[in-house]
Design brief:
Chain A is mostly beta strands and about 120 residues long. Chain A is about 0% helix and about 50% strand. Classes of the chains: A mainly beta (about 120), B mainly beta (about 120).
Chain lengths: ~120, ~120
């Protein structure tokens, strides 16, 4: 079990550019989540996948944000036309579909800075 | 509405002293409750969880938490704090139902440990 991994760990971009983050969940986990955390706040839910199906999206996820999970494995989160307000830590988590399905295991996060 | 409140933004304790971090939740059904710890610039590590049964749950690193339904609380405790416990601590409730499946976090408590 190698845990949840995220790439890149840090991203600095200029306002208006597009960025894409990747998350690789724990291999046997079929549920994958994206959260956003700003300074001094707890993580806030963005979206949730069960296998390849995106089942829920938060209102925080504007039209500039899109997430995919092709083939129910890794996931990508893309932000188009970045704004300074997008600067945050983006966290990915995964959980299994059985047993302790409610336990979410988090990756190290991707720190986005928009200049 | 579902929510989690952590009343203490910042706590300082002396090494070797006992610790209690407060957490209150608002949730209509049986809650699934969690405590996570986050070191600077890192992802979240699961400390412990409550699903059902014994209201006093043990976690990693010597932490424990007690679920009190009458007080809607899930406070985290440790009898003797170590310098390595300095971090930010988040309480969370798992919100589920239909296609909804996510953690709702409090704003966190930042723990400082004095030598």
């Amino acid at each position: 079990d190698t845990g949840v991994s995220q790439d890149p760990r840090h991203k600095i971009t200029k306002r208006g550019q597009n960025v894409t983050f990747r998350c690789d969940p724990i291999s046997e986990h079929n549920r994958l989540y994206w959260y956003r955390q700003t300074l001094g706040q707890g993580p806030e839910f963005l979206t949730y996948f069960q296998n390849e199906a995106q089942l829920e999206k938060s209102r925080l996820l504007s039209d500039r944000f899109s997430a995919e999970r092709p083939k129910g494995s890794f996931s990508t989160l893309e932000i188009q036309r970045t704004e300074q307000g997008d600067s945050a830590m983006y966290l990915c988590a995964s959980s299994s579909g059985t047993g302790s399905a409610y336990e979410q295991y988090f990756g190290p996060g991707t720190r986005l800075t928009v200049t | 509405a579902q929510s989690v409140t952590q009343p203490d933004i910042h706590i300082t304790v002396s090494e070797g002293a006992s610790l209690e971090l407060r957490c209150n939740y608002s949730y209509g059904a049986t809650p699934y409750l969690f405590w996570y710890v986050q070191s600077p610039g890192q992802g979240l590590q699961l400390l412990l969880k409550y699903f059902s049964g014994d209201t006093l749950v043990q976690g990693i690193k010597g932490f424990e938490a007690e679920f009190k339904r009458s007080q809607s609380s899930f406070n985290l405790r440790k009898p003797s704090v170590h310098w390595s416990d300095a971090a930010e601590y988040f309480c969370a409730v798992f919100y589920y139902g239909g296609a909804t499946n996510k953690l709702i976090f409090g704003t966190g408590t930042l723990l400082a440990v004095q030598p």
